[in-house]
Specification:
binds hypoxanthine, binds dioxothiomolybdenum(VI) ion, 20 helices, binds ligand MTE, globular, alpha+beta
């Protein structure tokens, strides 16, 4: 072989006559799309049940806060079909399912019931119906204790579930005193039920000795493994947790699967029979945590140009009875209470309050949306106070690119594109002309009023719990050239498995069809992080790329030696593997490597660079980068009834160099709709006894097809690669678009404001249900009649 330089070799390679199917940046369909629609996709409840499987149901407390005086389960045990009943006394290990093993969240309540619905026992029966009927037969005597149900009551007690955090930038107190103008107010922000299509579910299959295999609908298989081991008092190594897919998680399966998994594992190991637990939808909604509701008190100093000079904000959150993820959730609220705005001077504090309600948890955005809603209210207040268009107030306060770019947590914003992004959306959506048209429409229509708003998003990407920012993957190549791909992330509909397969297909330059996407299991990739914080493809994509590169390096070294060419002459192309002048199939190379005794299995690992965080100081770089976006919403409100329709939404969203624009557009659309639902029709309502009364679709209103924007235009920002070295320069997309839904709240507020001549800030709280919209309209009319906003 003459000495050829790599450049000569490249010149020898014929121009690619084909592209691989499923390359990165291609709009490849979701790997299971056809199975989702045909019903062939297997969810936990579809897995063939082992012979002798027991069905498990939970017995729930009917008090919000009470001492348990007696628990009589005789009738439950004697009910038809019942095989076993278990309480806290039957747990071999710790009666604890708290996230991070915190010891504040029992599997079964022991002496004290902490919320209405608190599980007291589990009953296992031959059929699901028998288990359900038996669960209702328990006789419990309670001694009621004072129940703290909402934020106001919790503020009075001052009891927190986890330590609060404070962020400080500059001197907020002094800057507020010095500011030409100040104002203060409060916004109330409701919680949200996840309403995943597939409810929580777990199935356990006992093995020999201590072994147990679980199929669980969870975003966090490794934590389920730890919790089960801890409850059963067995080593982690005895527990295997497998997840092929979830029918949605949305954060609601980051920790909330622990209960169900621990319960079936207990039943399986105690009885020696397989066990499955799928709660009714009503029970699922009652006993799993939700998005935290917040009350945010704000004070803002500003000038007549609408420039914000200082903010002081207090974030009080209803956390429920246990910590769960409330610490990082309330932290993330503070990390997003600036949204895209430079405050100059800021003080922000969290108040993670304990209540006798279900323990609230992760939900898409993880506190960030609540922080951002508060930020947008502050901007809106300044707009009304100065008489400027809210869009102009937003723009004048955007972070700079070279200065005015330090956040309240002292991370410098280095990748800011919000200015040009909003300019592009403003032009594309024809914002200014539509503003005029809407003013004219409102002047001509006494009852129907239109509103328009453009709101921006800047969302920090990385887990704020730094150790979670790591991932692993495992790739096997079989001798027929097929590739078995496994990684630590879980598939919940977001398309993670498709994206990771695209990354691997690209490395080997093979069609994606050659890659077998396999169920996530703690047995293949250990010690994984939750698939959360939108980081699934960032972390697992890189880990899988590293595994593929390790294998490729071995194949290249082998082929170079075997066919006697320089390593640079071995190139993976869409036509096949070029080895010098030869063109071989991927399979031929793999087969030869096997015969040459080359290992065809590799792991890959990745950890996010650059990040660090000192929570006590409130300073550091918690995020590797930011994802940006903006939305314009237009609504029409019937001011006689408070009902409304969303007429049009235009979105421009930043995915860097998208790994898969089709999937990312789907995430943007779905996230927006979910955010809109949270801020409009989804209302959680507890009665005076602490019973959640909105525990079914009959009373809890998520967006339906008919609620979607009448015109819905979504574009991804073009030619805007991530400045950080992420997987193929893409950006995380899972959560950020949810916050585009804030535009609908502000469009509604704009329409409402028209009834008082846009002189009074409506202070429309969330969710802006038709009832709340109507009440706000009436309050605004009364305020206007009393002469407010005349000055
Ligand atoms: N998309 C679908 N279809 N279903 C889901 O449950 N969860 C969201 C988002 N998009 C979710 C979804 C949440 S809360 C997160 S954190 C991310 O997906 C997690 O996946 P990723 O990190 O791979 O984006
Ligand atoms: N986001 C989502 N889930 C998490 C985080 C986070 O920042 N930290 C711990 N779990
Ligand atoms: Mo998503 S709330 O980080 O699971």
């Amino acid at each position: 072989m003459p000495d050829k330089t790599p450049a000569d070799i490249n010149a020898d390679i014929p121009a690619a006559s084909r592209r691989i199917d499923g390359a990165v940046h291609d709009s490849r369909r979701h790997e299971s799309a056809h199975k989702h629609v045909s019903g062939e996709a297997l969810y936990v409840d579809d897995i063939a049940e082992p012979a002798g499987l027991l069905h498990v149901q939970l017995g729930l407390a009917s008090r919000a806060h009470a001492r348990i005086l007696s628990l009589d389960l005789e009738a439950v045990r004697r009910a038809p079909g019942v095989v076993a009943v278990f309480t806290a006394a039957d747990i071999p290990g710790d009666n604890d399912i708290g996230a991070g093993l915190r010891h504040d969240e029992p599997l079964f309540a022991e002496d004290v019931v902490q919320y209405h619905g608190h599980p007291l026992f589990a009953v296992a029966a031959e059929t699901r119906d028998q288990a359900r009927r038996a669960a209702g037969l328990a006789k419990v005597e309670y001694e009621d204790l004072p129940a703290v149900l909402d934020i106001a009551a919790a503020r009075a007690t001052g009891t927190l579930v986890t330590p609060p955090m404070t962020l400080r930038l500059g001197d907020a107190e002094a800057a507020l005193k010095a500011a030409p103008r100040t104002l203060s107010g409060r916004i109330v922000i409701g919680g949200q039920e996840h309403f995943y299509l597939e409810s929580q579910i777990a199935m356990a299959i006992p093995g020999e000795d201590e072994d147990v295999l679980l199929h669980v609908s969870t975003q966090h298989p490794s934590e389920v493994q730890h919790i089960v081991a801890h409850v059963l008092d067995i080593p982690d190594g005895a527990v295997t947790v497998e997840v092929r897919r979830m029918g949605g998680g949305f954060g609601g399966k980051e920790t909330q699967a622990n209960l169900f998994a621990a319960c079936v594992a207990l039943v399986a190991k105690k009885t020696g029979r397989a066990a499955k637990l799928r709660p009714d939808r009503d029970d699922d909604i009652r006993i799993t945590g939700k998005r935290h509701d917040f009350e945010v008190d704000y004070q803002v100093g500003f000038d007549d140009q609408g420039r914000i000079l200082a903010t002081d904000m207090l974030f009080a959150a209803r956390c429920g009875f246990a910590a769960d993820l409330s610490g990082p959730v309330t932290d993330r609220a503070l990390f997003h209470a600036d949204n895209c705005y430079f405050y100059g001077n800021a003080r922000m504090a969290s108040l993670p309050l304990k209540t006798n309600t279900v323990s609230n948890t992760a939900f898409r955005g993880f506190g960030g949306p609540q922080g951002m809603v508060a930020a947008e209210r502050v901007v809106e207040e300044v707009a009304f106070a100065t008489g400027l268009d809210p869009l102009d107030v937003r723009k004048v306060n955007f972070y700079g690119t070279t200065d005015r770019n330090v956040t309240p947590y002292h991370q410098t914003v280095e990748d800011n594109i919000i200015g040009p992004l909003v300019d592009e959306l403003e032009a594309w959506s024809d914002y200014r002309a539509r503003r005029q048209a809407i003013r004219a429409f409102n002047a001509a229509n006494p009852y129907l009023k239109k509103g328009l708003a453009l709101t921006p998003v800047k969302f920090g990407i990385s887990f704020t719990f730094t150790p979670y920012n790591q991932g692993g993957a495992l790739i096997h190549i079989y001798t027929d050239g097929s590739i078995h791909l496994n990684h630590g992330g879980t598939e919940m509909g977001q398309g993670l498995n498709t994206k990771v397969a695209q990354v691997v297909a690209d490395e080997f330059q093979v069609d994606i069809g050659r890659i077998r996407i396999t169920a996530t299991t703690t047995g293949k990739v250990p010690n994984t992080s939750a698939t959360a914080a939108s980081s699934g493809s960032d972390i697992n994509g890189k880990a899988a790329q590293n595994a593929a590169r390790a294998l490729k390096a071995r194949l290249v070294e082998f082929a170079a030696g075997h066919w006697n060419v320089p390593e640079a002459a071995v190139v993976f192309t869409a036509e096949g593997v070029r080895v010098g002048d030869r063109l071989l199939t991927f399979r031929e190379v793999v087969k030869a490597a096997y015969m040459g005794r080359i290992s065809l299995s590799a792991t890959g690992y990745y950890k996010t660079p650059k990040i660090h965080w000192d929570r006590a100081k409130g300073q550091g770089r918690p995020f590797l980068y930011y994802a940006y976006g903006a939305a314009v919403a237009e609504v029409t409100v019937d001011t006689l009834t408070g009902e409304y329709v969303v007429d049009q939404v235009d979105i421009l969203h930043d995915c860097g160099d998208s790994l898969n624009p089709a999937l990312d557009k789907g995430q943007v659309e779905g996230g927006f709709i979910q955010g809109m639902g949270w801020l409009t029709t989804e209302e959680l309502w507890w009665d005076a006894q602490g019973r959640l009364r909105t525990h079914a679709p009959s009373t809890y209103k998520i967006p339906a097809c008919g609620d979607r924007p009448r015109r819905f235009n979504v574009r991804l920002v073009q030619n805007s690669p991530n400045v950080e070295d992420t997987i193929h320069r893409s950006k995380a997309v899972g959560e950020p678009p949810l916050m585009l839904g804030i535009s609908v709240l502000h469009a509604l507020s704009d329409a409402v404001a028209s009834v008082a001549g846009h002189k009074i800030c409506p202070r429309l709280d969330a969710p802006a249900t038709p009832e709340r919209v109507l009440a706000t309209i009436e309050r605004l009319r009364a305020q206007a009649a009393a002469g407010e906003g005349m000055a």
